[in-house]
Amino acid sequence: MRLRLDKFLANKAFGSRKEVHALIKQGLVTVDSVVATKKDMAIQIPEQIIAVNGEVVDNRQQYYVKFNKPAGYVCAVEDNRHPTVMELLPPEFLTMGVVPVGRLDKDTEGLLLLSNDGVWAHRIINGKKHISKLYYIEYTGELTETGLERIKEGIVLGDGTVCKPANLELLEPGKAQITIEEGKYHQVKRMIGAAGGEVTYLKRLSVGPLTLRGIENLGDFTYLSEEDVEKL
Ligand code: URA
User: 176 — phi, psi (to 5°)?
Assistant: First the structure.
C-alpha cells in the first residue's frame, strides 16, 4: 500500500499533520534507516520500515483486537457522559478507525472485540454463522424451574422479544454460566430477569473460539492471530 509519510504518521497518532511535519523537519523520522526530509514522501507499507526517534512504528493497517473490558466504560468511540473503552487503548486505535465490534454494557466485564475492518465486524455482528458467546453470571433471587425451562426452550422477554434457546448451567447458588448465540439489548440480564433472578455481575468469557486466554487481567488487550481472524 502506497501512503504519504505524514499521513501514515498522523494515522498512527504521532500528532496532527503539523506536529508530524515538525518531527520530520527535526530529522527524527527515518524510512529504511535513512532520515526522511520530505513530509509528502511516498512510502510503501508494509515493505518499508518507518522509525520515529529510533523506534520502529508498527505498520499494521488492519486491526483485529481482543480486549478484557473492565466495568465502568461504555462500548463507544465517543460519549458525552461516560468514559469509553477507547480511553483504555492506544491512541492510534482512534486515529486508525478501530471501533468496538458489538457491545457490552457499561457494567459488564470481559471479552470485547475491536476492529477497523468493517466487513469482518459486520460478519461477526450480523453474519449468518451463529457465534456463541459464553457469559459468567452472578445473580440474586431464585431462578424458577419454569424460568430455567423457558431459557432452554427460548424465553420470551417482557416486551415480547423472543430469545433463541440458550444453554444455562447453574454453578452454585447465585452463580451460573450461559451460552447465547444472539446479542440483543441487555439480553443476558433480561433473560435472567424473566427467569426470576437479577444479575449483579456479568462477564463475557468467550466469543466463538476466542477466550480471555492471554488477556486475563482487566484492561489487557492483544492482537488476534490471522488464524483467529479467519476462524470467526
Ligand atoms: N447481555 C447483557 O445483558 N449485557 C451485556 O453486556 C451482554 C449481554
Answer: -155, 170
